[in-house]
Design brief:
Mean pLDDT: 90
Structural class: mainly alpha
Largest sheet: 3 strands, antiparallel
Strand content: 5-15%
Order of helices and strands: EEEHH
Low-confidence stretches: none
Number of helices: 2
Helix content: 40-55%
Radius of gyration: 23 Å
Shape: elongated
């Protein structure tokens, strides 16, 4: 596997399974430099995955709350004012975003 790129100080800054012009150096998987780089990157990788799961859970909670409100199991006015404001703000921003992307050619979303 690993083909790597190093910065000016010799630290590994990128890893790839395939060689390419930006990552020409090959290291065995058990190389200490590679192990150290992957160990150092692990917290950022886990944080990114955690952020994604939390984003999905937030969306799930929002959908569940909307179902409960729609079925009159929970009244919108029963929610704390801060929560009401947050829902209002989210709906307003989503509406604005949808309006903006619908005005773009081919409904292209920004990257």
């Amino acid at each position: 596997m690993p083909y790597i790129a190093r910065d000016a100080d010799g630290h590994i800054v990128a890893v790839s399974r395939k060689p390419n012009p930006k990552m020409p150096e090959y290291l065995p998987e058990d190389h200490p430099d590679l192990k150290a780089a992957l160990d150092n990157a692990r917290p950022q990788i886990v944080k990114k995955e955690l952020d994604e799961v939390e984003r999905k859970l937030g969306r799930l909670a929002e959908d569940l709350l909307q179902i409960l409100i729609t079925k009159n199991i929970v009244l919108f006015t029963d929610l704390p004012v801060d929560t009401q404001d947050l829902i209002y703000q989210r709906n307003k921003l989503a509406s604005e975003y949808n309006k903006l992307i619908s005005q773009k050619p081919n409904n292209a979303t920004p990257e």
